[in-house]
Amino acid sequence: LGAPLVLGIESSCDETGVALVRGRELLVDAVASSMDEHARYGGIIPEVASRAHLEAMIPTIQRALGEADVDLSQIDAIAVTAGPGLVGPLTIGASAAKALSIGLNKPLYGVNHVIGHAAVDELVHGEFPEHVMALVVSGGHSSLLLVDDIATDVTELGSTLDDAAGEAFDKVGRLLGLPYPGGPHVDRLAREGDPTAIRFPRGLTARKDQEKHAYDFSFSGLKTAVARWVEARVDSGLEVPLNDVAASFAEAVADVLTAKTIAACQRHGVETLVVGGGFSANSQLRDMAAKRCAEAGIDLRIPPIRYCTDNGAMIAALGSAVVRAGVAPSGLDIPVDSSMP
Ligand code: KG4
Ligand code: ZN
């Protein structure tokens, strides 16, 4: 007891997530996903996702309360993803959170989804040290955050200029004829291949780009390079070595992500790196980050995968930090912002 009990609601993409956090303790994390409905379209359909959130929201809230044996009246504050994300899905979560805030007469906090991906690690590995670097990588985002205080002082050092890391994997998966979402399939193939077989380009690493985009990422050129390479093989009547293509592509993505992240840690004197977002399941990234962090003397923290994919715990964790920091609640008129920085 002591710390306020915060209910967190996440609905920015295809997961309806509801969780309860007290301080840095997670009481329950309930998630409903509409991914199965999107898989047959080969991508997230916002309207389908919105409807799924609408149907799942109240049952998921009820499930979370039931599993934690908590009554609505015990909740001290409500946190909700205000952005970035899909505007329809965000609106469903925000409307539910506003209704609870009004009904229970408890404060509402709109929080940032990407920062939530970093915040959730405090529930797993404990309070952050003074400076933390966070690499948030998923199908929707690839961002490098300097976290001086998770509730009040987060600076985005860089982000992707085009595709997110998971999105690039999904596109390469489609190119290689793999089911959607392709990321995990490409990962599996890559583990059987030779990462040095093909030298694919590393985006934004040339000297002129380093000046302007030292901590930004770009994966769209890489994806095109993979497509060209595969086409050339097919045109020449040669077999496409799927394992080697996957491994060389995955190597290029992991190389750029880890090299830029570690350079940022060194530049900012940061000794702790948190990796979050659904793409942190990627084996090539995990292996390379572990190796390079060990070499650089950086403490690497990656939450278990269920807390890396979208969930309510990340929003409740960030909400709890914001409440504890004494930040003023959001007004009930708080808008959702699909492109929130
Ligand atoms: O966080 P998440 O569940 O949803 C988004 O907010 O995007 O991230 C899922 C993304 C998808 O693009 C998926 O293909 C990719 O992460 N992904 C992977 C792996 N597991 C998930 N990509 C590569 N290797 C994996 N093992
Ligand atoms: Zn996410």
UniProtKB/TrEMBL annotation:
An example Gene Ontology molecular-function term: tRNA N(6)-L-threonylcarbamoyladenine synthase activity
Database matches in Pfam families: TsaD (PF00814)
Subcellular compartments: Cytoplasm
Cofactor: Fe(2+)
Binding, substrate: V136, V137, S138, G139, G140, D170, G183, D187, N282
Enzyme class: transferase
Co-factor binding comment: Binds 1 Fe(2+) ion per subunit.
Residues reported in the UniProt entry to bind Fe cation: H113, H117, D310
Catalysed reactions, as listed in the record: L-threonylcarbamoyladenylate + adenosine(37) in tRNA = N(6)-L-threonylcarbamoyladenosine(37) in tRNA + AMP + H(+)
The keyword Cell cycle appears for this protein: no
Keyword list, A-Z: Acyltransferase, Cytoplasm, Iron, Metal-binding, Transferase, tRNA processing
Start and end residues of each Gcp-like domain: 26-316
Enzyme Commission no: 2.3.1.234
Record-annotated membrane-spanning stretches: none
Chief location of this protein within or outside the cell: cytoplasm
Biological role: Required for the formation of a threonylcarbamoyl group on adenosine at position 37 (t(6)A37) in tRNAs that read codons beginning with adenine. Is involved in the transfer of the threonylcarbamoyl moiety of threonylcarbamoyl-AMP (TC-AMP) to the N6 group of A37, together with TsaE and TsaB. TsaD likely plays a direct catalytic role in this reaction.
PANTHER family, sorted: TRNA N6-ADENOSINE THREONYLCARBAMOYLTRANSFERASE (PTHR11735), TRNA N6-ADENOSINE THREONYLCARBAMOYLTRANSFERASE, MITOCHONDRIAL (PTHR11735:SF6)
NCBIfam families associated with the record: gcp_kae1, T6A_TsaD_YgjD
HAMAP family named in the record: TsaD
Membership in a protein family: Belongs to the KAE1 / TsaD family.
Protein name in UniProt: tRNA N6-adenosine threonylcarbamoyltransferase
Classification of source organism: Bacteria, Bacillati, Actinomycetota, Actinomycetes, Micrococcales
Recorded name of the encoding gene: tsaD
